[in-house]
Amino acid sequence: RAMRRVSLLGATGSIGDSALDVVARHPDRYAVAALAAHRNVAKLAQLCRRFRPGIAALLDRDAAHALERELAGDRLPTRVLAGPSGLVEAATAAEADTVLAAIVGAAGLEPTLAAARAGKRLLIANKEALVIGGAAFMRAAREGGATLLPIDSEHNAVFQCLPHGYAREPSRAGIRRLILTASGGPFRRRAVEELANVTPDEACAHPNWRMGRKISVDSATMMNKGLEVIEAHWLFGAPVEAIDVVIHPQSIVHSMVEYADGSVLAQLGNPDMRTPIAQALAWPGRIESGVRTLDLASLAGLSFEAPDLARFPCLGLAYDALAAGGAAPVALNAANEIAVAAFLDGSVPFPAIHATSAEVLSRTPCAAVDSIEDALATDAQARRLARSILRLPADAGGVALAA
Ligand code: NAD
Ligand code: MG
């Protein structure tokens, strides 16, 4: 059994923590080849001392210099890299066979795409990269010979419920639909008129999952589920009408696949990202993840309800964008990133996230997106539009939301 050498993009975040927890349980099977993040010097230094990677990369150049100085006396095997090219090197280095893509937002696209082109075993948490890259990303992964393994919990659940050797053709596999579950987030029962006054901390107080702030806000608007519908479309080749969403507040059933004969296969587990991460790391095998046994008898119940699109209009927007295709999903993601960053820093109220996303979507011309360059141009245009709608400065937010 070969040792896998893992490059972790987004090492200082929530997914980074869960991934390193799993890796550390199996020192005989996984080594850390590279760690990459935005600018958290103290945390990356601590991780370098513990995991001794060959590469540590920070996007922020000043932070990278500080990391180099910080590690100078430590006799580590670690080369410190800086800037976008440093992230790409961390994603493509020969010393890593496995890349875990867990940078938040569009900022993760370039290194994640580079790992796909380099033919890595690619574990994807960075859903925004898939939404922006779309068909061009999937083509690059195929041409590069990459193995894509989803670790977003819903997509990991679907992946586990698909037939062996599934080849992105739902009807040939007898699949009727994919059913993504959603918790409904912190505002599932909040009076809709109160949403105008909710704070970033309230929006980030997810009932079942501890996550980074951007995805937590996306869960509160259910834009997260909308992005996941688009993610499922690209990963599994499912048409928009074959992807359903159901609210399941307990987050125990992580998603389902319904087959032509009426069978519905589900994947269950405690809500803990170490399960999908461990599944993807070890696939097609299985390893311990540290997640406690699911105690079915102590669950009060599992409930399901249809999502209310009046309460969660962002979910409807994402369906519309996917149905429209081309530039629409890319523009939606970009507008959402700008608006969420502005909400998190207190410049705009919560309902502005939907209002801005809807306006950007309606003002984005229908256009085909045939390449990554097309997608990046659409992304940049939509960001400009979102900033002008929100009267934000030209350099406001959107990519650097985290640690
Ligand atoms: P987080 O905010 O906790 O961590 C983000 C990581 O990305 C940090 O290491 C940060 O340094 C890095 N980063 C941010 N901007 C960067 C930039 N410009 N360049 C380089 N690195 C940058 O976020 P998270 O919750 O860990 O989520 C990461 C990704 O995984 C997101 O795309 C999210 O949608 C997805 N995801 C997360 C969860 C979860 O449970 N946290 C579940 C499913 C999917
Ligand atoms: Mg998810």
Task: Describe this structure as you would to a colleague.
- With 403 residues, this protein is of the alpha/beta class.
- The protein has 15 helices and eleven strands.
- It has helices at residues 14-24, 41-51, 61-71, 83-92, 109-117, 127-144, 153-161, 200-204, 213-221, 223-236, 274-282, 313-324, 327-344, 351-363, 372-389, and strands spanning 4-9, 30-37, 55-58, 79-82, 98-101, 121-124, 147-150, 175-182, 243-247, 253-259, 264-268.
- The protein has a seven-stranded parallel sheet, sandwiched between helices.
- Strand 5, helix 5 and strand 6 (121-124) form a beta-alpha-beta unit.
- Helix 13 packs antiparallel against helix 14 (351-363).
- The longest helix is centred in the middle third of the chain and has 18 residues, at 127-144.
- The radius of gyration is 20 Å and the shape is globular.
- The model has no long low-confidence stretch (mean pLDDT 96).
- The structure holds nicotinamide-adenine-dinucleotide and magnesium ion.
- Magnesium ion (MG) is lined by residues 152-154, 228.
